[in-house]
Every structure is written in structure tokens, then in C-alpha cells.
Specification:
- It is a single chain.
- This protein has twelve helices and four strands, in the order H-H-E-H-E-H-H-H-H-H-H-H-E-H-E-H.
- By secondary structure, the chain is an alpha/beta fold.
- The chain has one domain: 3-Layer(aba) Sandwich (Rossmann fold).
- This is AB hydrolase-1 domain-containing protein.
Length: 260
């Protein structure tokens, strides 16, 4: 999700390690996946690679939501992270308003994933009712700037889009829905005290003001509720802003140098 040039890596002196979450790419599916089990996967990967105690976890969109479970491991950056409308810590009026900000078909898709997860595959493959507009990548869920970004031929290439889903949608996209919008073992809103020890890094959250997929109102509430999260709201940006090279580079620098 990041657009970097090789010289940027060299300038910052960093190595970026990308891995496939369970069910994506060539990673084995995990039918019992939870936010906490994914954090354990990240911890094991870091140990196997010998990353030491100083590393950062970055996630975008649905992957950004997964970072909540990894915060105790290291410094973290959440980029346009998807929110769970059923987290108990959200005021009901705020989460309800944000939920209905979505297109009706996306409201129904998330309802099914939360209340009847065993129907998630059927709902997303049946033809009687409209399925998720977000999953289908329909134009209505993108801001005007997003549409300009995804018009890039390389981004939309079939090969690039096919790799993550090579094992099918159920253990990747559909499992993400069931885990992300299901019942969590913890509520991020309960982490009022910074869970990262002093000197262990910081947590940043970036979100586009004009994001049509994930309502910015809930991110603003998170920033207010959890003051240790360094919140960056990007005026005029939608959901796909990390694909803008200048923004990607500024995010990495902010995380490394702990800049506001």
C-alpha cells in the first residue's frame, strides 16, 4: 500500500517486511483467526526474523484495523483503519450515525458478518440482493481523488489484484469481515493508558477527511478518547492516500522520528 523509491529506504536506513495475513496470498488460512491471534503471528514472525525489540507495525484499511491487536508489541501506524461499529466503547449515537453513512448494501453486508457470520459467504455470492460495494470496488465508495489514484494502470492490473485472493475470497476477504466486524476479545477504547512502555515507540493514526469507506467521525472520537494516539487528519484526502509517494514517505518519517 506504499509507494516508495529505493533511495527513500536507503535515506531512512530502514527495511520494510511485508507478509500475507492468514488466507491471503500464500499464507495458510486460519479458520480460528482473531485480532489477538494475528498479533501472535506478528510477534512470532518478528522473533523468527530477529527483528529485536525495536520495530514498527504498519497496516492499511482492513490491515490497519488489525494493528490494534499488535500495539503492545511495538510502535504502530494505522492508515485509514477500518473500524468495528460494534466496539462497546463508541457512543451508540455516534456509531449508529457512522454506520448509516455507508451505502445500504454495505450496511447489510456488515450486519450479516456480525450477527450471522455463517452466512457471510452466501451473502457475498448470492444474486438476489446487492452485495458489498466496498468489496466490489464500486465507484460510489471512492472520493474524487481516490478515483484518480486507482485509475493508475499498474494499480489496477489483474495480476496485482489476483495474488492476494488466489486461495479464494472466503478465507481472505470474507474471513476479514467476520473477524473485523465480529465480537472482539478486547475493546480498543479501553486502552486509555498507553500500552507501549516508555521508549518503545509511539502510535500514529492517519485518516483522510473525505474517506467514503470509513467514516472520519469515529477516528476523531478515537483520537479524543485515546490521547496517546497521534492523530493525523488529511484534508481533501480519501481512502487511498498512502499510494501518494509524498504522503507515504512523510508517514514513515513521522513514525520513525516520532513527529506530529
Amino acid at each position: 500500500s506504499f509507494d516508495f523509491q529505493q533511495e527513500v529506504y536507503q535515506e531512512l536506513g530502514v527495511h520494510i517486511v511485508s507478509f500475507d495475513r492468514p488466507g491471503y496470498g500464500e499464507s495458510d488460512p486460519d479458520p480460528n483467526r482473531t485480532p489477538e491471534s494475528l498479533a501472535m503471528d506478528v510477534e512470532e514472525l518478528a522473533d523468527q526474523l530477529g527483528l529485536g525489540s525495536k520495530f514498527y507495525v504498519l497496516g492499511f484499511s482492513m490491515g490497519g484495523q488489525a494493528v490494534w491487536g499488535c500495539i503492545k508489541l511495538a510502535g504502530a501506524g494505522m492508515i485509514a483503519p477500518v473500524v468495528n461499529y460494534w466496539w462497546p466503547g463508541f457512543p451508540s449515537n455516534l456509531s449508529t450515525e457512522a454506520y448509516y453513512f455507508q451505502l445500504p448494501q454495505d450496511q447489510w453486508t456488515l450486519r450479516v458478518a456480525h450477527y450471522a457470520p455463517w452466512l457471510t459467504y452466501w451473502w457475498n455470492t448470492q444474486n438476489w440482493f446487492p452485495a458489498s460495494a466496498v468489496a466490489a470496488g464500486r465507484a460510489e465508495v471512492f472520493s474524487s481523488q481516490d478515483l484518480e489514484i486507482i485509475a493508475n494502470e499498474e494499480f489496477c492490473s489483474g495480476q496485482l489484484r489476483a495474488y492476494p485472493m488466489q486461495q479464494g475470497n472466503f478465507e481472505s476477504l470474507h474471513r476479514d469481515m467476520m473477524v473485523g466486524f465480529g465480537r472482539w476479545e478486547f475493546d480498543p477504547m479501553d486502552m486509555e493508558i498507553n500500552p507501549i512502555p516508555d521508549g518503545g515507540g509511539s502510535v500514529h493514526l492517519w485518516h483522510g477527511e473525505e474517506d467514503q469507506m470509513v467514516p472520519v467521525t469515529l477516528q476523531r472520537y478515537i483520537a479524543k478518547k485515546l490521547p496517546w494516539v497521534k492523530y493525523h487528519e488529511l484534508p481533501g484526502k480519501g481512502h487511498m492516500f498512502p499510494l501518494i509517494p509524498e504522503i507515504s514517505q512523510s508517514m514513515i518519517k513521522a513514525l520513525l522520528y516520532d513527529e506530529n
